[in-house]
Write a structure and sequence with these properties.
With 579 residues, the chain is an all-alpha fold. It is built from 25 helices and four strands. 77% of the residues lie in helices and 3% in strands.
Amino acid sequence: MNVRFNPHVSARRLLPNGWDVIAFPLIIGLIAMMAIGLHQTLQPLATLKTQAVSLDPANLPEYALRTTLRMLVAMVASLAFSLVYGTLAAKSRRAEKVLVPILDILQSVPVLGYISFTVTFFIALFPGRVLGVELAAMFAIFTSQAWNMTFSFYQSLRTVPRDLEEVARGFHLSPWQRFWKLDAPFAVPGLIWNMMMSMSGGWFFIVASEAITVGNNTFTLPGIGAYLAQAILSKNLPAIGWVLLTMTVVILAYDQLLFRPLVAWADKFRMETTRSASAPTSWLLNLMRRTRLIHLLLTPLGALLAKTARLKLSLPAWPQRRGDAIQRQRRSRAIDLCWNAVVILMTLAIAWRVILYVQTGVTLNDVGHVMVLGLITLLRVAVLIALSSLVWVPLGVLIGLRPALAGKIQPIAQFLAAFPANLLFPVFVITIVHFQLNPDIWLSPLIVLGTQWYILFNVVAGATALPNDYREAAANFHIRGWQWWRQVMLPGIFPYYVTGAITASGGAWNASIVAELVQWGSTQVKAHGLGAYIAETTTAGDFPKIILGIAVMSLFVTLFNRLLWRPLYAYAESRFRID
């Protein structure tokens, strides 16, 4: 059969269509936003003092732009960190012994703890430039985003179905190929839902990231967080209303332009042989697929990425002889003993250095007092996580099993998760002072305000990732009621729930710094707890006491994770792993 070459048809394929005309402004706008943000970060540091944050609502679009850019940069850094760190922790037994406890400690260190020590470093790195303060703010946002994403990726890699692992071995995939062909695709659905939660978690600490006060030094970056801090200090309720409106618009924008397309794209990675009746959709993803010129421009990039994923990269292996299995086992045990000894010695050395520094400004009475404050905050966190689990696990399953409902709930949940506790300070302060309520009880809800959503988002991710085959089998066998929860749904979502609960508890400890010491104008309300202690010492710039507070918080979080969440993690891997 002869096929004639039609030059007019080929030329027409290179011309943009109507969908390109709609998509190009979105791409140009994104590039322009990045260029403007880069230009502003290269300005002299003195401009932060000459360009004070104004409560004029006309400035909010610019502030929203700069805040969104900081959060997106931090999100990219968090994603890269999660892929590398989570893979090392999941694939290396020796690295896991070090990396997972370090991750427990990192998520327990409060945002204010990072800011206290990183601002000076980044300013010295870029002296006289706004870029130094910008990097400090981005790093602070990164610390509120990265840990739950890393836990999610680590959990997914540890629970890859065994039959898929057998298939990967059968095809002789190298570690590099297996990562891109099996591990990463299997982890994508849960990772994307945790990226949403991370973006919202960044909003929760945006005030601390953009209005930085350490000792006598104050750095205020133009942004929604700095605007909100100024509004709270001035008791300006209309300005707080404008912040709420701006946050709503921004959250809806990145939900439609970023996360909705990602959720729709990730649906193809669900592990099932039958497709659910309704799948998530995205108008932007459909738009990009219908474009002609943009699609043509992106094709070489997609081909390059696909070729890179197929590279047979692997670590060199030592030749092994037959009959030396016992010798290799002995060598492995010896290496394990040496590795454990090195880890223990390093831990003791770091602990000793911290003790030597802290004792210069802290007494034993201070240590005992901080330990008691830690127990009080621990009680708050444990009760609030339990209550949040009872509420959000069934609701998360309800949402996750209905993609259409999840699409409607998604932006609402992101907004509620992003709702900064600072916006509720007027309500709580005025109510507690007027009715003479106990701050130790009535400030507690602020702790879980932003962290309960970790449980919801992870349960939704678990219900979404549950194979449709399992649901159809349960329906065919008429499994209903409590039996359905006990034998089908709870085992399916349990690993995801544990991930959400770990990150929620770590986030709750962080949130205690904001929630246990609240201020509205000149009126301050304080609850007893470790969070209030760290907030006060950070404002005073008392570094020995800051380190003491952070060390005690890290100790409590690590022990809580070791004694409760880690055993549940191991149970989820062995008992509820899909085969």
